[in-house]
Design a protein that fits this description.
Number of helices: 7
Number of strands: 6
Helix content: 40-55%
Strand order of the largest sheet: 3-2-1-4-5-6
Order of helices and strands: EHEHEHEHEHHEH
Radius of gyration: 16 Å
Structural class: alpha/beta
Distance between the termini: 37 Å
Length: 201
């Protein structure tokens, strides 16, 4: 990857499987990584590993279901590290089950993390990017958004929404020199996937 040296990068879910790999990859290319995660210990572990390898990183605890928490974490990251140049919305959560056997309490939790969390992050970070006239956003959706996934109806609902939202943000912010892209990973060996496959116990 080119042009990333000294760029300030936020990665949500940075303490997890895919997120930690993303954090390390950015650090290897000289970026300053803000590791965002609800699990502060996991975020600290990833950030410490990056620093031990000679990179630059800091950990920030954030609850993506709370706009107040998101605003506070983004402000703290910018105060400590500098203006955000890249946002990677990677965090996600799901609990597998047939849709007709789930209830609103579960739907609300899945939507709060996977959909509203991304909305809050965009609003908090892109406001500054638009003012500066520069920025990059990578949204991590899911193959479930493209082809569906049995047992993940509400998760697919959220990730499909993220794809459409990404296209709209790309249109709205193109004149501000902000690129918005979305990637849709398939099954990946993470703790979330092992739980889904019944291997997490």
């Amino acid at each position: 990857m080119k042009g990333l040296k000294d760029k300030i990068v936020i990665v949500t879910g940075g303490g997890g499987g895919i997120g930690s790999a993303i954090c390390r990859r950015f650090a290897e290319d000289g970026s300053v990584v803000a590791v965002f995660d609800i699990n502060k210990e996991a975020a600290e572990s990833v950030a410490a590993g990056i620093r031990d390898a000679g990179g630059k990183a800091a950990a920030f605890a954030v609850d993506l279901t709370s706009q107040e928490s998101v605003i506070g974490a983004v402000a703290a990251a910018e105060q400590q590290l500098g203006p955000i140049g890249v946002l990677v919305n990677n965090a996600g959560w799901d609990q597998a089950g047939p849709f007709l056997k789930t209830d609103k309490a579960l739907w609300d939790r899945i939507v709060a993390v996977n959909l509203y969390g991304a909305l809050y992050m965009h609003h908090a970070v892109l406001t500054g990017m638009a003012a500066r006239g520069a920025g990059r956003v990578i949204n991590v959706a899911s193959d479930a958004a493209r082809v569906g996934s049995s047992g993940e109806a509400v998760y697919a609902f959220c990730k499909g929404g993220l794809v459409s939202f990404s296209k709209t943000m790309a249109r709205e912010l193109a004149r501000k020199q902000i690129n918005v892209n979305v990637v849709c990973p398939g099954p990946t060996d993470t703790a979330l996937f092992r739980d889904f496959a019944g291997e997490g116990e």
